[in-house]
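Input record (Table S2, row 239):
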Amino acid sequence: MSFGLAKGREMDVSGIGRTREDLPPLPGPGAPNHAQWIDPRAWFDDPSRPFELEVGSGKGTFLIQQSVIQPQTNFLGIEYAGEFFRYAADRIRRNQIANVKLLYHDATEFIRRVPDGIVTVLHLYFPDPWPKARHHKRRSLNDAFLREAHRMLINGSGGVPPGELRIVTDHPDYWEWMEEHFEKWTVGAPGEGGPRFERLPFTSPDSAKEGEVVGTNFERKYAREGRAFNAVVLRKAAR
Ligand SMILES: C[S@@+](CC[C@H](N)C(=O)[O-])C[C@H]1O[C@@H](n2cnc3c(N)ncnc32)[C@H](O)[C@@H]1O
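Output record (S-adenosylmethionine complex):
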């Protein structure tokens, strides 16, 4: 499959892209939880800056647009389709954007290795809907994802608000599935006080153009088809 991505041109991911082979191996059984952790902030020139993560970054359009507006923030995109990863990494390198890196990996696996409380914003835009019931288990958003998201997001202190998970989808059935999950994970949900999010209306990033929700490639494609979008912000709440 070529996805129509710059056919015939060599992609150069150097300086931007990392792959599974670049990561330390998982520790053996019985190792403490933190032994598996990898801190991706160390991949940037200034690891002390705020750190945002995009799951399923596709052609990298959101990262490229927003990183220019937020030059003091480090952005990591995780993408498991090799052609998209290479295309986006090459594009970021050619544009000489220093505050964006990409990882070629399954994001649902990698996020388990991200340390607690380091992510200011987690972006999930137009995740694959996997419409058939037997494929629902492949959907990125599920209870495990929300648990990891809550764990990775910063707690907020000293005037810095808690971290946020920002989600947009075009798919009505996936949105229904998401809503069912949000009910379990938002403030006021029944049950003993587990990790919770505060549900807020979605606000578009500054890089979005007039009339856009975020302005990703898939959003632009689906907007041309006249599809409607649903979006939400889930802000980490104290237990
Ligand atoms: C429908 S596309 C949306 C891409 C981009 N966010 C946009 O809005 O243009 C979904 C992307 O997520 C990637 N993806 C899906 N599941 C993933 C996972 N578990 N880990 C990393 N990437 C994933 C796909 O390869 C694809 O590029």
